[in-house]
Amino acid sequence: MEIARFRRILVTGGAGFIGSNFARYLLEQGAPEIVVLDKLTYAGNLANLADLAGRPGFRFIQGDIADPAAVAAAMENCDAVVNFAAETHVDRSLLEPAAFIQTNVQGTYVLLETAVRCGVERFVQVSTDEVYGEVLTGRSRESDPLRPRNPYSASKASGDLFALAYYASYGLPVMVTRGANTYGPYQHPEKFIPLSVTNLLEGRPIPIYGDGRQERDWLHVRDHCRAIALVLTRGEPGQVYNVGAGNHRPNLEVARTIVRLLGLSDDLIQHVADRPGHDRRYAVDASKIEALGWTPEIPFDEGLAETVRWYEAHREWWTPLKSGEFADYYRRNYGARGVLGRGEQ
Ligand code: NAD
Ligand code: DAU
């Protein structure tokens, strides 16, 4: 089952980081028609889709996935839905959890409900390895219990459970993907890799939370998009698929590599207060999606070097994102020592 067989695919959250890369990937793969529905929160950015606007088969609609009327209009005549729309930043979820529940739980519910009514043939719920909670040793399998430890991951876990319940209860052909930490072009500079690169390009230090020994598995956005597209076309309804690249690195090592790639000094790495409830490590066993035919293709060292070059070459894209809303958010919530919890504001 290839991408071109779908008449019209709804990509929610397609003005964000992974969603915009995915929309571009779908058109490259011959998708006849895609509709992007996005609320354009602080994280949504039409500049991410500028090269797609005006192409035949591409349509953008501004709207909220928690608004049933907007969703019904966007989903009309769609045979597939891929849901990327979410509040995604763990730090923000510690400060304002309500928006995470509204979009990641209520919004997912509205999409599922509408998909049942529209008779959608394939529905991919894009989720995260964070739903397993921190994994100090070994790797999470899809059948492992969900132990989310922050409001973001708790809201995503809840969205997963609703998605799977809609398969069991109403027969909606839902697949869930649980991806690892993704990096690459068009990622908002609030996240660790783009924050580090753009801070250095602005002559500012990288803030490392706590001891910097927390480990993440870094997955290039193109590999992540290929995995989601494979699940869309060949995944089995009712199943969950982990997506991990096996590129586990402590944050401090990633920061040092970025500093080196820019020819700078390690003095620009500054330890700051730790994130409350900071998960030390995530790691997934990706053998199930590998059995479906996926394997990561982009080695981390190459992907990271290419990503650093992309941010160097696209200052006009990220400079506005670091002023305005983001600058206010940073000023309000982060002191000179780093992240502040809610009680410390
Ligand atoms: P992002 O924050 O860059 O983009 C999210 C997009 O969703 C934005 O365009 C935003 O405007 C839109 N959005 C938010 N609330 C909305 C609403 N109520 N209605 C419609 N649109 C709304 O996020 P991302 O990093 O691209 O993540 C996309 C998805 O992938 C999320 O579901 C996230 O949980 C998941 N994921 C992300 C990663 C990662 O490392 N970035 C890893 C695994 C899974
Ligand atoms: O694992 C998948 C998840 O990865 C996604 O589901 C989330 O949407 C995505 O935001 C990401 O979550 P993390 O919390 O792992 O990503 P973040 O980029 O915020 O942080 C990565 C690591 O770097 C984490 O251990 C915290 C640390 N960090 C982050 C920032 C922003 C720092 O040390 N300093 C920072 O300034």
From TrEMBL:
Print the keywords alphabetically: Lyase, NAD
**Annotated CDD domains:** dTDP_GD_SDR_e
The protein's required cofactor(s) are namely:
NAD(+)
For the protein in the UniProt heading, the enzyme class is lyase
Q: Name one GO biological process term.
A: nucleotide-sugar metabolic process
Asked whether the keyword NAD is assigned, the reply is: yes
Q: Name one GO molecular function term.
A: dTDP-glucose 4,6-dehydratase activity
Per the UniProt record, which EC number(s) apply here?
Answer: 4.2.1.46
InterPro entries in UniProt: dTDP_Gluc_deHydtase, NAD(P)-bd_dom, NAD(P)-bd_dom_sf
Domain of life, source organism:
Bacteria
Where the record annotates domain NAD(P)-binding, the positions are: 10-307
Give the catalysed reaction(s), semicolon-separated: dTDP-alpha-D-glucose = dTDP-4-dehydro-6-deoxy-alpha-D-glucose + H2O
Please report which protein family the annotation says this sequence is part of: Belongs to the NAD(P)-dependent epimerase/dehydratase family. dTDP-glucose dehydratase subfamily.
Q: Which NCBIfam families match?
A: dTDP_gluc_dehyt
Protein's name according to its UniProt entry: dTDP-glucose 4,6-dehydratase
Q: Which gene encodes it?
A: rfbB
